[in-house]
Amino acid sequence: MKANKSRKGQALDARHQGQAYVEFILVIPLFLIIIAGITGYGQALYTKLAVDAAAWSACRHAVASLDESRAINQAFLAASYTLSGFGLNPDSARVQVTHWGAWQRGTQVRAQVCYDVPTPPVPMGQLFSPSQVCARQLMPVNQYKSKW
Predict the structure, then answer these.
(1) How much of the chain exceeds pLDDT 90, in percent?
(2) Contact present, 55 and 136 (Cβ < 8 Å)
(3) What is the C-alpha to C-alpha distance for residues 28 and 22, in angstroms, rounded to an integer?
(4) Which of 115, 141, 142 is nearest to 46 (CA)?
(5) Best label site of 33, 81, 94, 102, fewest CB within 10 Å?
(6) Three-state SS across 64-99?
(7) For the chain, how big is the Rg over CA atoms in Å?
(8) pLDDT tens across 99-120, in order?
């Protein structure tokens, strides 16, 4: 009689193990999609923070100079170095520096940096994630900067 009970217990254990495997197989794809989505959207957020910092740095370095050609070169270098510091490829960025009026003290300078973001590896990720991240910064040329 005891042998009969142990066989019955083994059959129940095997059935429970089979049920656990089926539940695992049903849940693991959903879990992996959620993890991939979090990783993809985290990457987009990180890129947005890096592009914001690059736009601020480009604008700040541009307004620090009273010479227009030097200022624009400084802005491009600053954006490039900032993106490199965040581990992003600066060759993939588009930097645009514009100003209104003659380059002199108080002139408003705008720096815009755009960067392409890869789509997250989840179903329909391109619908929910931006393909390009842009940031703008506006500052006046330094009022009290010496021409020396």
Answers:
(1) 41
(2) yes
(3) 10
(4) 115
(5) 102
(6) CCCCHHHHHHHHHHHHHHHHHHCCCCHHHEEEEEEE
(7) 28
(8) 988 888 888 999 999 998 877 6
Give the residue among 68, 56, 75 at the shortest CA–CA distance from 104.
68
| CA angle (83, 56, 114) in 5-degree steps | 55
Instruction: Say which residue the tokens 């179903």 belong to.
Output: 123
Query: What is the rounded distance in angstroms from the CA atom of residue 45 to the CA atom of residue 51?
Result: 10
Long-range pairs, 31-38, Cβ under 8 A, ≥24: 33/122, 33/123, 36/120, 36/121, 36/122, 37/120, 37/122, 37/125
Q: Supply 105's token pair.
A: 């003290």
Q: Which two tokens stand for residue 86?
A: 């965040």
Residue type, 96: Q
Amino acid found at 75: A
Please say whether the beta carbons of 123 and 47 come within 8 A: no
